[in-house]
Specification:
2 copies of one chain form a homodimer. Chain A has 280 residues and is an alpha+beta fold. Chain A has helices at residues 18-22, 40-54, 60-78, 120-125, 151-160, 211-222, 269-278, and strands at 2-5, 8-11, 16-17, 25-33, 36-37, 83-90, 93-94, 107-113, 127-131, 172-176, 182-185, 189-194, 197-201, 227-230, 240-247, 251-258, 261-262. The first copy, chain A, is globular.
């Protein structure tokens, strides 16, 4: 295939990146604290699951060592010790069609960004959460994975923050799927206390299984607190007592308002937050 | 954000392409015959629908004129007169998050490839079609659009052709969604004769509304032939009399075998194919 670069026709013998063509790949966004990636093995476990599901034959060992070496150089050069590390793994280059050859070589992209501001007030007092109009797709084969097909998150996020958002004080939006299940936030997972019981949505047909979500599931287990993983219907939100959202960058943020209804601060919040801070 | 290029740390002030990060964009694959793009206005209509749905503020006029000028240069330089023109429109560059600023500038990528071989035998005798395990996602906001979130098509296509495919003589695979609706082929739309009536799946919650599909819908209308657009359940395939698949590159290809069951050649096939050939 051919394209124009700086007004010159160039032949692209290897084709072009399938991440660009089809979102054909995976990503991870990893928190770096004091020069160390936090929950590294959980991120690598999810990435590996994704590579298997997409049949991308990248060696985890080679990937990890490439990331570590690039991370070291990036940290040193930027002088950052707290940062956000973003990895993209693409299936590689191909011609224009969906099919690809057996010898296709995956790509790794490594990016370093400045860390998020710390949400001191949000972590303490909680945030306002609304429902999004944009749904999570129902796609059993890709559910749970952090793959690059994320237009729905982009559209949902634009309902919540940015120049298109209607309200200014909303922090996150919850997404349902076509069956009316509450799945997750636009950039977070959600835990809800429903009729006295902690619940987090089952992500078998929709959603991204976040690393912080997995960490919290294990925290509930280790602390002998009951947590049920199941589908949650939108109607159940009317009986929601308290809740929190989480992702690996911001940690665990209480929901103070859900659809303009005030919620109680979660009973588990302080313990969970302090355990999270301590594992860094 | 920073990355390594040729072992040097570079700062990416504008961030990176959101098509690469999130599949945040659209594409079109257009047949070029005798130097002219076929069904140009139908492709541009679908692209425009997608730009509106994704809220990408690209001017269609500027896009079309950029494509035409680049196409001319590419055809001249490669000496091709029949070709495949692939356009990708990305929302543009941003930092790592889902949100983006109001002043983000969309990108246009233009690629030219050699044309497909003509499927003389397939067009005449028909092809074998099976069911794919990979489903079409249910996502009402994106259904019908030719957006860049196409991992499911990639995975489904790999079930049909390429080194991972189990059978060698299968030409296309049909995809169902989570509700058990037959939606489309991995790279085509489908028309089925069910209990004596021509039907094509409604694409309101899943699938890509192909330009050839739209052309055929209008052909049925103009020729006073009944065609019903509705959801089709997988069970209905047991009563399928004949069928065909289509896309803008290959035209209209009869289904000779559906899940190893022989089908009759479609009654409309020759008329449809000759009308299609004549519009080029």
């Amino acid at each position: 295939m051919w394209t124009l670069e700086d007004n010159h026709v160039v032949e692209l013998e290897q084709g072009i990146d399938r991440a660009l063509q089809f979102g054909d790949g995976l990503f991870e966004t990893i928190r770096v604290v004091n020069g160390k990636p936090v929950l590294w093995s959980a991120h690598m476990e999810r990435l590996q699951k994704g590579l298997v599901a997409l049949n991308i034959p990248a060696s985890m060992e080679a990937l990890e060592s490439a990331v570590f070496s690039q991370l070291e150089t990036l940290l040193e050069s930027t002088g950052l010790s707290n940062a956000v590390l973003k990895l993209i793994v693409s299936r590689g280059n191909s011609q224009r069609g969906y099919s690809y050859s057996e010898d296709i070589t995956p790509f790794l992209y490594v990016y370093l960004s400045k860390p998020l501001e710390t949400y001191t007030e949000a972590l303490e007092k909680g945030v306002s959460v609304k429902m999004c109009d944009t749904q999570c797709s129902i796609q059993p084969k890709l559910a749970g994975l952090k793959h690059l097909n994320r237009i729905e998150n982009v559209l949902a996020r634009a309902e919540v923050v940015g120049y298109q958002a209607e309200e200014q004080d909303v922090f996150e939006g919850l997404m349902i799927n076509y069956l009316g299940h509450v799945v997750e936030g636009t950039m977070s997972n959600v835990f809800l206390k429903l009729k006295g019981q902690w619940v987090t949505p089952e992500l078998d047909i929709s959603g991204v299984a976040g690393v912080a979500r997995q960490w919290a599931i294990e925290w509930f287990q280790q602390n002998n607190k009951t947590l049920v993983i199941r589908h949650v219907s939108q109607e159940e939100l009317n009986d929601c007592q308290s809740g929190f959202i989480c992702n690996s960058q911001m940690g665990f943020v209480p929901i103070a308002k859900l659809n303009n209804q005030n919620l109680e601060l979660p009973d588990v919040m302080l313990d969970l937050q302090s355990a999270w801070m301590n594992q860094e």
